[in-house]
Amino acid sequence: MTYTLRDLVDLIAKRHFCVLATQGQRGPHASGVGYFAQGLDMYIPTSIKTSKARNVRRNSRVAVQIPIPWPLIPAPPRSIQFRGTAEILPIENPEANAALARASPVMRRVFRRLIERADIQFPGENIWLHVRPLGRIETFMVGVPITTIFRDERKATMHFDVEQPEA
């Protein structure tokens, strides 16, 4: 069976944690974040006051790494990674909230609790970071049986070229 971009998109949608790297004034900044996905669009809830939001405001170029744990195997996680762009969206954004609505009830509840506990004296504090891959998505040990990897480790990596949205 050939692993396709559609398979990869489905796997990204099933996960809800990634590492987001941004460029700060003093160098790279990496943060573990929760996300909700619709296709290749990822929506990350955060505060406008965070380093990642300030960094995206200055420089929209980001990198993302999504770990995919092996079920029942104590081994390093499989991985999806890409470079992309990010933009700041208001918390009311319909596309981001549609991605949230498709998440599991547990994930929706966790996110809504975070919003409820935010400091309501500062409206507009909560935002979405909208992240989209550019060019190529690379994977490590995703879509390849582990037995194949044991026989030929060069088959552990794949890449998928991503079409760019029309401007």
Give the oligomeric state of the chains in this entry, treating copies of one chain as homo and distinct chains as hetero. Answer: single chain
> Any idea what the CATH architecture is?
Roll
Alpha-carbon Rg, integer:
17 Å
Number of helices in the DSSP assignment: 5
The helix-and-strand class reads alpha+beta
What overall geometry do the principal axes of the alpha carbons give? Answer: globular
**Poorly predicted spans:** none
How confident is the prediction overall: mean pLDDT? Answer: 88
**For the terminal residues, how far apart are their CA atoms?**
35 Å
Number of E-type strands: 8
What is the CATH domain class? Answer: Mainly Beta
Measured as a percent range, the helix fraction is 25-40%
The largest pleated sheet is described as: 8 strands, antiparallel
Q: Can you identify the CATH superfamily? A: Electron Transport, Fmn-binding Protein, Chain A
| CATH topology label | Pnp Oxidase, Chain A
Domain tally: 1
Order of helices and strands: HEEEEHEEHHEHE
Strand coverage percent = 35-45%
